[in-house]
Amino acid sequence: MLSEGDKVSSSVSSSSISYHTLRNNPICNCGSPASLKWSNTPRNPGRSFFGCSKYNTKGLPHCNFFIWADSGKEIENDLMKLEIEILMKKEELQKTHEELQKTHEEVRKLLQLFRRREEEVRRREEEVQKMMEEVRRWMEEVRLRDGEIVKREVEVRRQRTHIRIYWAVSILLYLYLIRSH
């Protein structure tokens, strides 16, 4: 026999949802059995739900208890599974985010290292350019000195030639003077 909170129309009593929900009638938060009711909202027209049996009863406090009648254990289990899956995905997303942050930090450090090395290479290139300029100046100085040495050698050869000619003429003159006496 149905209690007053379990009274439903005859058309509903034949449906499986009604039978199932009446057999497993939930208890309100206030301790009284929940009443089976139907929604008349545009979003859920005719959908059955359990609500506090004291709702809309003048002078009685009610607990605002509400649960859809078709939200059985399978739906709750599916929802639980979905919640667990969402939590796992959130954890996975968090780990991926942390890995991405670590990778980002590593890339930032590598970029800093690259910039420092690039700056060092630039400074060394400048040093090499300065050294090359100095080497060019030294080579120009060596070339100038080499030119001076070559000029001196030419002058020395010319002077030697003159000295040899002078000695040869002197010897010939001496020999001529000795023979003529």
From TrEMBL:
<dbReference type="GO" id="GO:0008270">
    <property type="term" value="F:zinc ion binding"/>
</dbReference>
<keyword id="KW-0863">Zinc-finger</keyword>
<keyword id="KW-0175">Coiled coil</keyword>
<keyword id="KW-0862">Zinc</keyword>
<dbReference type="InterPro" id="IPR010666">
    <property type="entry name" value="Znf_GRF"/>
</dbReference>
<dbReference type="Pfam" id="PF06839">
    <property type="entry name" value="Zn_ribbon_GRF"/>
</dbReference>
<protein>
    <recommendedName>
        <fullName>GRF-type domain-containing protein</fullName>
    </recommendedName>
</protein>
<feature type="coiled-coil region">
    <location>
        <begin position="72"/>
        <end position="141"/>
    </location>
</feature>
<keyword id="KW-0479">Metal-binding</keyword>
<feature type="domain" description="GRF-type">
    <location>
        <begin position="28"/>
        <end position="72"/>
    </location>
</feature>
